[in-house]
Amino acid sequence: MNDKTRSMPEIVARYLRKYPDFLLKHPEVLEALQLPHESGEAVSLIEKQVQQLREQNRSLTRQLNQLVRVATNNEHLIGRLHALTLELMAIAEIDKFFDRLCAALKDEFNADILNISLFDRSIKCGPDTPVYMVRRDDPDLQSVQGKLENGETVCGRFDRTKLDFLFGSRAQWVQSTALVPLGKDGLLAIGSSDPARFYPGMGTLFLDLLASVVTSRLAQTQPQAQRRSA
Questions:
Q1: pTM of the predicted model, to two decimals?
Q2: Coil, helix or strand for 225?
Q3: SS3 for 123?
Q4: Residue range 101-146, pLDDT digits in tens
Q5: Which of 119, 179, 189, 117 is nearest to 148 (CA)?
């Protein structure tokens, strides 16, 4: 497209972009420019630019404050995870390990509903500790198998089939979920009644580190038959 086929506003806009100092060299043009407010009042181009810069600055400030809050929260979480890890690794009995882990997730990390499913492995824990055995060939496991295959934590809103498998009768209260693979050992599911608690794209470093703690502990207490066949 050449200048003959361009409209006059396009030609002027192109020229000003090419020579951004034009208005500085021709202040008489700048003084004549006016941009109307929605209210109908006139405002100079400089005032309009200042207004835009202020809006951009407010937006950047909000983004910076959000990043600071996220960093602060992550720092607190890592500190709490470190303390919890030291406490957990000092527990000799595997059932007591899971009792303390689930209690910490509920009380200290605000998890509403939990499910720890271990593949082909039964651990007798306390009555308030949701640790279950799941057969690897359980057909119901297929509902979440696709989310486990990548070995990465998945967060978001799950369909009812997945929720029913993960949380059973408690599924009706779950509005968002974090599904944490435990390698070849099983899975950890955390349900929340808050739809915005777990969402796609959120940071999962804390959950990934927690999964490493669980799998390391399970590796220390493998049944004798599994250790001999490994």
A1: 0.66
A2: helix
A3: coil
A4: 999 988 877 789 999 999 999 999 999 899 999 998 899 999 998 8
A5: 179
